[in-house]
Amino acid sequence: MPEQIQARVENCYTLAEDFFGRGFKRPQVSLKLRGQKAGVAHLHDNLLRFNRQLYLENSEHFLRQTVPHEVAHLIAHQLFGPGIKPHGEEWQRIMLGVYGLQPDRCHSYAVKRTPAIRYIYNCNCPSQDFAFTAQRHALVAKGRRYLCRACKAQLLFSGQQRLE
Question: What are the BP-aspect GO terms (predicted)?
Fold first, then answer.
């Protein structure tokens, strides 16, 4: 784990403790998040997951904005309980008041999408096909059935695949 992320998490907790005058339980931190999200706070597990690749590509902004963003979720949960909205007033007040940061909901990091295999299914409709994800294709293999909304026929695997 890059020490900078762990140090920034600790810094965010110290700022929150000074601001609120109380201690907070430190979270477990992981860099095993993949995909389009830069970070995720697992409130009930007191766990922060960060995207290593997005950190490496955007380290300065990531440390300045993304890490406090996710820490603020855990702090808000510990202060106000599970009934608050994820990017609601409590979280926004922590971002502004404790960290002096704009409470931006989403990052704008460039995310490289890897092409995904789609499995092509057909029905009785002319020139109609349905591109299934690998997960949905696996469900069909286990016996799940899908029907065309137009002709009501069962969708059947054509044997073809394509990259999207």
Answer: proteolysis; response to stress
